[in-house]
Design a protein that fits this description.
Rossmann fold, 44% helix, six-stranded parallel sheet, DNA-binding, homodimer, elongated, 434 Repressor (Amino-terminal Domain)
DNA sequence: TACACTCGAGCAATCGTTTACGTGGCGCGG
DNA sequence: CCGCGCCACGTAAACGATTGCTCGAGTGTA
């Protein structure tokens, strides 16, 4: 029963069953053209020897691997891991496996991953990245690609599933303004992804719409990679120490917002009494934090689902809409009460 | 420059360069046996036409795919996503891609994934699961497997990289006892993984070691899948409502612990004054929670690194140690202050 | 009896690589 | 001048599957 070494091949099955390899293939794929008796014999051999088809060979022949690639900036971030989880599940349900690539916002790494994925001949790619140098990938064998959440500026006619970041930025900022904030800081990383930039634009629009000036001192940019919340915590601590005055914070995402909450607490600044804070993503961090974080809710499950549908559609050669914008909404909690 | 449709094949490169396909192969792999002039000509054609080798074909021929499979229970949990991130990076550094499979603690799903991975002829599998029905996978083509963190009871001679869960359970419980707790609840999911069970055994050993009885009413088992913290929160709320008396909680992981913290707060029970809480994993949730959570620190990065090394070693046909136990330590924070 | 048709099955090409082996030309030593 | 060896390269057989084509035997019909 147990295989001694190598997995058994189709030819061995054929030999053991005393039929041709073509017949085995037909039986396996239920194509007909074989007798009931032959079917039983073949299936018995398959069962007894634990034959499992070699997808590498199949993929070579059929020019499709039933594998898709997924490029993610940081799977450690709740938003992205939720996205990845849902996408993986959606693809699995359709018979696809998912190769995961964590590019850590590193363009070079991302490009290397892209080459690898093409080389593996994935059937499609879900890309969450604003960095990919794009002249390249069209050359790189025109694999179907769908951007989800993040996308680069020059993304030609590549479809994307994004959330309404501009509106999210506006919602968050206006909410702070309504609560009486007049000096609202914007905390962000250095991102080339348009989706992230749009949050900043929404912020500025909201300020302008209410006659507030966008003080450059209130734009707090995190250097380096935004990992966990530690960097945000330290950066904000430095800003506080430098004496910059503010009464509201809009953070590009919940991880940064949580870092801000901790820095504020460290400095003895009360939230929401002294400073109100709004995050982005409405991830698990927002519910865990104290005070619970007001955050712009997005729908990673929905985005994953749509992204998956779009990509599959593309793979099947259908037309798809270029831009699919998922709405956002504000989840109000204690941090702006 | 841009490819019209299909990626170009090696034969086309050969034709364009006016050499045989064998020569192209030799140039690409730097095997020698070609002139400098030929090399230049071939490389020029490759460059100009954006040739990228087909790994499916290569894999078929070489009987290795440079892909490894990873079965994870819940990539949404910070501990596992950190593990996955590190593993993916470690493998990528060695030229391997990672297929990610989220089995959601579902045995059936896990087994299906296993078959798929075998079918894809992955070179090895990192498995974080206590569920796999194991008689199967030895049959399933004896691919190298390494268990990380979780492993099933009957895991024959499959190597594993685990943390010292028993000691972790004891550390956590003894810490609570030292802080004066006498009625300590243990919150867990229903897990067949030995690693999880060991935490409970450590808990019981610690109790027994201090002459405390293990009250069955204090063993709080979560039904269903433990996703996020909501279920723990609700379950503990019910326990509180039912009037069970306790002054300490040891939770199987941080997600459950955070749910407990929230339920306690909902019920107006103070932490640590009325009830002290210890989690497991020392994940990001522990630092974010208020009060900050005392937790058994584990080292997912280290575990991922070791797991990766072990698997690669196995793939290369070397012997490896069967059990690699990574120590744990207690990170004391406010929830037990 | 002859013919057409169907059914079950095999043959062989093909996908894109790698690699063992064969081969022609050239240089060089004897 | 002959022969040997090496260099640079080509030929072809794999790897494990799919699939169009062929083919023989059996059946039904006229």
């Amino acid at each position: 029963m147990a295989q001694s070494n190598k997995p058994i091949s189709m030819r061995e099955v054929a030999e053991l069953a005393g039929v041709s390899i073509a017949t085995v293939s037909r039986v396996i794929n239920g194509l007909g053209g074989f007798s009931e008796e032959t079917r039983k014999r073949v299936e018995k051999v398959i069962e007894e020897n634990g034959y499992i088809a070699n997808q590498a060979a199949k993929g070579l022949r059929e020019a499709r691997t039933r594998t898709i690639g997924m490029i993610v900036p940081d799977i450690t971030n709740d938003f992205f891991s939720t996205l990845a989880l849902q996408a993986e599940r959606a693809f699995a349900d359709e018979g696809y496996s998912v190769l995961i690539c964590n590019d850590a916002n590193d363009a070079e790494r991302g490009e290397h991953y892209l080459r690898t994925l093409i080389s593996k001949r994935v059937d499609g790619i879900i890309c969450i990245s604003g960095r990919t140098t794009f002249d390249e990938d069209e050359v790189l064998g025109n694999v179907p690609i769908v951007y989800v959440d993040r996308f680069p500026e020059r993304s030609h006619d590549i479809p994307r599933v994004i959330s309404d970041d501009l509106r999210g930025g506006r919602l968050a900022t206006e909410h702070l303004i309504e609560r009486g904030c007049t000096r609202i800081a914007f905390m962000t990383g250095t991102h080339s992804a348009l989706s992230v930039q749009n949050r900043g634009i929404g912020y500025e629009e909201a300020l302008a719409g209410h006659g507030l000036a966008a003080d450059p001192a209130l734009r707090i940019e995190l250097k380096g990679r935004v990992r966990r919340f530690q960097e945000a915590r330290e950066t904000l601590a430095a800003v506080i120490a430098s004496g910059v005055d503010f009464d509201g914070i809009f953070a590009m995402n919940d991880v940064i917002a949580v870092g801000a909450l901790l820095a504020l607490r460290d400095a003895g600044i009360r939230v929401p009494e002294d400073v109100r804070v709004v995050g982005f993503d409405d991830s698990i961090y927002a519910s865990i934090a104290t005070p619970a974080l007001t955050s712009v809710r997005r729908f990673p499950e929905e985005m994953a689902k749509r992204g998956c549908e779009t990509l599959l559609s593309l793979i099947e050669g259908n037309d798809v809409e270029l831009e699919d914008v998922i709405p956002v909404e504000l989840a109000v909690r204690e941090s702006t009460a």
